[in-house]
Specification:
The protein is built from 5 helices and 7 strands, in the order βαααβββαβαββ. It has about 180 residues and is an alpha+beta fold. It has a 7-stranded mixed sheet, sandwiched between helices. Helix 1 crosses helix 3.
Length: about 180
Amino acid sequence: MDDRFVLRRAHISDIDALSQLCQRTIRETFVEDLSIHYPEKYLDSYFRSSTSPEWFANKIVDPQQAVWIIEDTINNEFIAYAVAGASDDISHLDVCPNKDGILNRLYIRRDHQSHGFGRQLMKVILSWLDEHYSARPVWLSVLSKNFKAHKFYAHYGFYEVGEYDYPVGESKDHMFIMKRQTNT
């Protein structure tokens, strides 16, 4: 990553830009790249509850959570972000809530993908999770048809251990639960 791009922890002052980036990357990933046709009212509802500035503020101030961004310092904009912390929202029998780690989100703007930003984020995320959730598994959920993400996560030792349907309005997204066991 050259000096133009800075990977850092997010601050409260970043929440509005993070919310906008989150909405953009969700649209790019799910609606455009994976061709999922969510009705706008469901997207709006999801954005209000799970991508709002308040959602990010809660994650940033929570000592069991961490939010990172990659900032393009020339254009003064965020191009990627990730959220990790205590596993409090994965439904799997083996999860120990608030003891295991979770990678909640990792998104990169489409126009900045395949440039190593995902690798940079994963290096920082896994290091932080190993430090805060030592010797504990790390979990994530990923859309079943997001094959690019499956391959990316598998490269870092994640493997499928379960599945579930995530309600989105009147439809459901089929999700895979992935796990990474630490080496310690």
